[in-house]
Amino acid sequence: MSKQRQQRRRLVIAVAVVITLVVATFLFMPTGKYVEVPGSASVTSKFVHVAGKRDRQRGSYRLMTVSVIGPASPAVLLWAHWQPFAEVDSKAELMGSATTSEYTALQRYYIKSAANDAVVAAMRAAHRPVSIHGQGIYVMSLLSNSPLRGHIHVGDIITRVDGQRYARAQGYTRAIQRHRVGQRVRITYTHRGRTRHVTVKLVRLRQTHRPGIGITLTDHTRVVSQPRVRINAGQIGGPSAGLIFALETYQQVTGQNLRHGRIIAGTGTISTNGRVGAIGGIDKKVYAAAKAGARVFFAPNIPATKTLRREDPDYVNNYVEAQRAAKKIGTHMRIVPVRSLQQAIRYLRMHP
């Protein structure tokens, strides 16, 4: 082989390697961005199981999700440009200061909490026995000066303080604040199902200047109802399935035919007294619901109060945003504003 041919061959190989690297980078190299796109419209009855009951009525309730892809490659970002209602976020915009594992743990907590609250709201609406039992406090995040860093993780459950169990998060907070800064307390907690103990010194919390352990927390509860209700959403996370969980539970418990053969979609958080709360990504959920053939879509109708405006200057009423999305895609699906589970039930009764 001549010297010129060898040089040409080396040049061809070098060019091929460069092209391969460029293509690989375009296809696979993460950018640090995340893409949110319309997700699924899953049949809710497969998640909600009421003892001795089955959802035998025609039609279905649909649990709406938003799919998150990331860290996204340049190819995914280009693909997202052509997807309906796609949204590109930085990690901070999507997860705040949480790590990926902490964010995942929070999303799983949110949907478990939504399921519990949905059961309570549905059972109360159906006038059936239901009670809430405190199981400890759920660790939502750890402050930078928390003495529990390195011991406790987001998603762990604190069950005792100095050997004492309390019914609610408020009880744990008060027990800790009875101590002084620098005083030691023994914390009992569960991590991945295992009970553990740690003794730490209390620190002065920056916001309240009171003694504390430096975590943000919320109640971890167990719901007991008659009949027994079990909700398992699998890998789905987030708080926005509350309303649709409650509707599915209510229909199974009462046996009422509220759907009349229709596909009913919707979204919104739920409180134990049935109040519906605002959620994110509703435009994507409207698109997924319309694609699934839904006839009705329930959207939280929470007005922009001064408090909301102060906390979020860009706040847009979910119902208004859902209407805009429906108009944009030209769907005949009816967007129904709701502020409570009772309103949703009443609408389905009056509009068969």
From TrEMBL:
Gene3D superfamilies: 2.30.42.10, 3.30.230.10. The chain crosses the membrane at residues 12-29. InterPro entries: Lon_proteolytic (IPR008269), Lon_Prtase (IPR027065), PDZ (IPR001478), PDZ_sf (IPR036034), Ribosomal_Su5_D2-typ_SF (IPR020568), Ribsml_uS5_D2-typ_fold_subgr (IPR014721). SMART domains: PDZ. It holds the Pfam family Lon_C. GO terms for biological process: protein catabolic process; proteolysis. The keyword Isomerase does not apply. PANTHER family: ATP DEPENDENT LON PROTEASE FAMILY MEMBER. This is Pdz domain-containing protein. It comes from Lacticaseibacillus thailandensis DSM 22698 = JCM 13996. The lineage of its organism: Bacteria, Bacillati, Bacillota, Bacilli, Lactobacillales.
